[in-house]
């Protein structure tokens, strides 16, 4: 069974204590929530401190947290995946300084990620729904049925500039990650070229992986918004890259251009060809 717990910023100290001791607790258990059904071997996700994405006027969604899960977009400070190591039990021995949370279970951390984007673009709808329910129920553990391995794929998180701070993230996500312009870029290239291939190394996902790779490719923004106060993104500002080339560009600053990476690839190919010819 898989569970989600939302941990507010005000509860950060308690989370630190819980992580150190491998224990978590709840003050109350409501009859409408199955938190008391937590058992050893279950998977548990802590979602810590959601900072909402702001709109173009710098305003957050009004009414949060009492809004639908589709509005739970932004960045989370910490995502922790853990395995429950004891069944649910009740104990009033002091653990946390602010209050007694007697409804408890123990866990061990499996994975931990920090400062990552959050919302339905990055996580499954079922997971986002569970986070919204946990937020509304004061951090109770909420069950979801999708499967822990289908929640979040850190390898799919691209464009590391979004991790440079909340203000940059908000503007970056609002402008750069709009799916409409990415779809438009892919459609433009497919219409003119006939297929989607990496602009640096010419890797073709569909040719290599067949139907599973059809229309799959990553979109790179050649003018990083983290270097500006915000800007309009045009189709010519985007480049389609394979996953490897995209990550190589973003590996370290200063980032290189797509044309520079293509030069490096071509030079390496020529060198290998000449070396091979010399062995003949």
TrEMBL record:
GO terms for molecular function: endonuclease activity. CDD domains: HNHc. Keywords: Endonuclease, Hydrolase, Nuclease. The keyword Nuclease applies. The keyword Nuclease applies. InterPro entries: HNH (IPR002711), HNH_nuc (IPR003615). Residues 198-251 form the HNH domain. This is HNH endonuclease. It comes from Vibrio japonicus.
């Amino acid at each position: 069974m898989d569970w989600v717990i939302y941990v507010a910023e005000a509860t950060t100290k308690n989370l630190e204590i819980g992580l150190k001791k491998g224990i978590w607790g709840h003050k109350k258990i409501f009859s409408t929530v199955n938190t008391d059904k937590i058992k050893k071997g279950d998977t548990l996700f802590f979602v810590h401190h959601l900072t909402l994405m702001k709109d173009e006027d710098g305003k957050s969604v009004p009414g949060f947290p009492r809004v639908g899960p589709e509005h739970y977009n932004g960045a989370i400070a910490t995502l922790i995946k853990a395995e429950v190591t004891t069944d649910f039990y009740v104990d009033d021995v002091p653990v946390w300084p602010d209050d007694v949370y007697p409804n408890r279970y123990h866990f061990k951390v499996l994975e931990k990620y920090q400062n990552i984007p959050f919302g339905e673009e990055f996580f499954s709808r079922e997971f986002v729904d569970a986070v919204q329910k946990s937020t509304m129920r004061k951090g109770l553990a909420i069950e979801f049925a999708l499967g822990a391995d289908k929640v979040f794929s850190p390898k799919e998180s691209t464009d590391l500039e979004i991790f440079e701070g909340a203000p940059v993230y908000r503007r970056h996500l609002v402008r750069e990650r709009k799916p409409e312009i990415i779809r438009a870029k892919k459609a433009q290239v497919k219409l003119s070229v006939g297929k989607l291939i990496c602009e640096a190394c010419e890797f073709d996902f569909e040719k290599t992986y067949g139907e599973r790779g059809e229309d799959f490719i990553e979109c790179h923004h050649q003018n990083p918004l983290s270097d500006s106060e915000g800007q309009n993104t045009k189709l010519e500002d985007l480049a389609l890259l394979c996953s490897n080339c995209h990550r190589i560009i973003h590996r370290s600053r200063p980032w290189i251009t797509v044309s520079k990476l293509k030069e490096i690839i071509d030079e390496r190919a020529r060198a290998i060809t000449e070396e091979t010819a010399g062995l003949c």
